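Can you give me the bound-state structure? Components:
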Amino acid sequence: AQSVTQPDIHITVSEGASLELRCNYSYGATPYLFWYVQSPGQGLQLLLKYFSGDTLVQGIKGFEAEFKRSQSSFNLRKPSVHWSDAAEYFCAVVGDTNAGKSTFGDGTTLTVKP
Amino acid sequence: NAGVTQTPKFQVLKTGQSMTLQCAQDMNHEYMSWYRQDPGMGLRLIHYSVGAGITDQGEVPNGYNVSRSTTEDFPLRLLSAAPSQTSVYFCASGGVVRSPLHFGNGTRLTVT
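Here's the bound-state model for the whole set.
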């Protein structure tokens, strides 16, 4: 069975500071990994995805994530956070043997201090 | 481009009532799914479909029914609403298996 753990429920950073959101996954084979962002009252929007190849992937809004197979991690990073980045962030994994069902982590809420 | 459209945005039901949450997508996606979102619990898969006429259960299917008669539509039916079904419901679609999901803006359901 596939699963995702986001260890941090809530993170607060100052505007302009760097950000790292943690994601650990469990899946036996090569996973497809995603990060989504949810603004209040909205649906989820894709930030970036990892399928194969280069382990450092770039996404929208200046975000990037690094896939580390040895650590079963897919952490999301941003060098300089903007106030508009305040939102909830979800990591998701999709296996290759379960009809493409996505499994989501519980989410990390990001607060940005001025 | 409308993407994934969910109606209604808000709904209040009494225990025992039934209703249908509507979901439509205009991207010709084969894969559609329903999730519920509860505080601190992320998104949990209720039902999904890999094409018209094909549906299957997800993680939390009890109390919900789905059907997929067309590629565009994937309604979710609550048979007899219970307070435990108070949640925010999201419909999502994807082009192919394992592709990123496109989400609707959600339906906030309260059951009293």
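A couple of observations. Residues 24 and 73 of chain A are 4 Å apart (CA to CA). Chain A is about 0% helix and 50% strand.
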